[in-house]
Amino acid sequence: MTGTDDGTKAGTRGPARASGPRVPAPWVRTRLRAAPAAALALALLVALTAALAAAFPRAVDRYEDAGLRRTLDDASPRRTTVQFFAPRPDLELSLGEGENALREAALRKGYDAVLAAVDKPLVADRAQSSYGVRTSDPTDASDSFLARPSGLPPRVALVAQNALGAHSRPASGRLPRATDPVTATTSEVEAAVTTETARTLHIKVGSVIHVPGLERAPLAVRITGIVAPREPDGAYWMSTPLIREPSLIQLPSDGGTYWIGALLLAPDAGPVLLGTPGKPERYWQVAPDTSGPTAHDVSGLASAVAALESGPGLARIRERVDPLTDATTDLDEVLSSFTELRSGITPLVAVAAFGAGTVAAVVVLMASGLAAERRRGELALVRARGGSLPGVLGRLLAETAVVAVPAGALGLGAALLAVPHARFSSAVAAALAVTVLACVALPVRAAFAHRAVRVHGGREDIASVRPSRRRTVAELTVLVLATAAVAALRRGGTDDAGSSGGSGDQLVALAPVLVGVIAALVLVRLYPFPLRRLAGPAGRLRGVVAPLSLARAGRTSASTALPLLALLTALTTAAFGGSVLAGVHTARDHAALLATGADGRIEATHALPIALPGRIRDTRGVREAVPVSVAYRAQARRGSGTAGETAALVGVEPGPYGQLSRELDLGGFPARTLRATGPDGSGGSSGSGSGRGRGRGKAVVPAIASPSLADRFGTAPFSVQLEDDSKVTVRIAAVRDVTPAVTDLDFLVVDREALTRRAARPTALLLTGGHLDGAALRRAAGGGVDVRLRAEVRTAYVHSPLQSGAERIYTAAVAAGAGYAVLALLLALVRAAPERSALLARLRTMGLTRAQGRRLLVLESLPQALLAAVGGALTGWAAIRLLAPGLDLTAIAVAGRPAPGGTARLRTDALSLLVPSLAVLVVATGVALAQAWWTGRRGSVRELRAGDGR
């Protein structure tokens, strides 16, 4: 055969092959084209995990910021405004210099100096901030037309505040003016009053009010206008509420009352205050901008406020304004209340976050383990043919990063769009951590699996692989960490954790997760032994399904630790989180029940109308209305010369009230406990006849007492004097910690029949019913009474967005952890699916039926699922029992609002323990059945084709 020099056949036509070495196809492109489904699954997993991880800190920022704004808005401007004040100018100054110091130009200059001293993040709301001069000691106004509730003359404060026209609109008349320069000797000035002040003090346009002068004739203040505030609740008016509405003052000596109001002068009329005995003072009121600060700025806000109150900020103001300038505000207390509430809630949210994050991380590691297992032969062949370990790892990192980095960026973008207006850096850090974990998981796994060059490996089931010393050391280290975290939480609690900060707090938050980790490691080591014990007896049973399933379950893959860790961590977190949420709801219900004493409460400071109980019982939703009389200031004493003990004396009908107490579990008692007794207190009748209050002062009345009264008076009879000066002699017959009629007070519960007719008249009704209608009850009760419903009180405890936001985040974190746990279970089953399908196909060629195949797969997967379900329930129960003494749910339950019932503690919730565990069993069984059905559809020939490496 004749050929050419280039090796082609003679006479052959066509393009010549290019000379030079062939360029291999790019590794990354080839791998992505070879397994697009795996790449897409990894991208979805990374995108979802990155989105959840990035959304979590932003959601926390959102509800914390909303909680801070709610806290600032709920606090009155009088508390949040930073007020600076300085006394009248130095007496060494001339009268003209002193007058100039009180004019608007000088005050404006001081106002600019005050604003310049405000450091960020505290920002002044210039629209609501104000300055001026006022009399700090209101003086009498003796004009006869002014209101005098008890004959005492009213007192008025003179206030010359800036920008009166910008913050009010004239209701009648005009704004005051200072056309001529006002001095300390000016005889008459113009002023305005608000509509509320004019209505209360009987002031009209044109009225002249005379204010006493200081070494001069009285000052005449002519009212030229009545103004209505444009923003009556704004800081301009509410920083000093007296300028908006007058206040009624009661004298402590004789009970007389008088009004105090404010007369609003022109801003340049301040010098006239020097001629009055009202002790004029200059003031500058800085209202904070409550729309800008975030929860992340709270520490900076507290520092800025402290600097203005007694730090370098106040020093600068004294240097530029007046050396005697002082400052006062309650803004620091408002911020402290928010910080205290947040510190009580944050550790609880961190527990859920660490639990869900751990499960998500385990799922990502399992996904990389599944990829490494599927490519074990490929990577072993590459290493056997001379591929270096760094080169292989670099290519694995590149092909994973090509998928994971865009997916992580997509998840971050989705989180930024879903949860706007929050910090960016924390979201980026969370998404970056997820992306890095997804990128390095497969290379690291491959590095450990292919350190040595080998083509065929030994068996890697738990019957063959023995734990190494490194694994033992790692497990012992985790055990020590878990023990330290649990001990720290039991000793210090989440309150100390939230206030101290640092890595110790993270260890405490990881405690439930570490308990699950220890349980997973222990169960993985102990898991094969009972199955091997059962394999012998099962082998003597008829049929092949039971012994084969037990044998295979006992020789499952050695990589069972990760799926079991994910399941146990998720179940522990779900049980812990569900118990936390259930404990919060229970604490609110109990606090609301103690506050009302029943499902509803109608109470007045006087005796209720006789017909009211009947009208209330006829109201829709009311099942029963129990009348009680409560004397809150009764005096209990033994002997006439001893000091009295203040207690609430409750007169009840023993039968209905005792039944109510038993139904509500609030100090229940049998009716006979309060039945009338004889003079010696031994029981029985005290005499013949009937009549309310017979034998008063002689007959001894049995009573149910609070523990403190029982400790003081014992069982001997003692006297109780009521508010109407009537007396009753009681003997303590029983002791109860609580009673429905009274909350947080020492109490004595007696039979109403033993009281006078006046003292026995009901002052309260305790209502029971499933769906009480508040509006209908208020209509039926009429005016002058207080109607409280248990449901309304409970709703009031959920006041701060910190509470509702934390509950939503907690629920979402537990749900996410449960979802990832199901995904971990599916990944574990998918990893074993090829080998199970091949086994099932081989067994079918030997005569195994489809029904037997389904039972085989179900029974094989059932031990692991049962192990996870039972272990998760036990681990969750143990974690709750171990950590409950250190957990205080009061902050998230009632948000620091006044609530009876003491500290809310964590208790085990049965549903939170059982439902997730049962769900694991259902999912595992369902997946096994689905796999058996799908394998039966594909047929045995396809599963047993030649060359299959399974």
Distance between the termini: 48 Å
Query: How many beta strands in the DSSP annotation?
Result: 21
The rounded Rg comes to: 40 Å
- Helical residue percent? 40-55%
Strand content: 5-15%
- Annotation field: number of helices: 30
| Class computed from helices, strands and strand pairing | alpha+beta
Largest sheet: 12 strands, mixed
Which regions contain 5 or more consecutive residues with pLDDT less than 50? 1-19, 497-503, 678-697, 946-950
- The shape is flat
Question: Overall pLDDT, averaged?
Answer: 80
Mind explaining what this structure looks like?
There is one protein chain. Mean pLDDT is 80; it is low at 1-19, 497-503, 678-697 and 946-950. This protein is α+β, with helices and mostly antiparallel strands. The chain contains 30 helices and 21 strands. Helix 16 crosses helix 19. Helices cover 51% and strands 14% of the residues. The two termini are 48 Å apart.
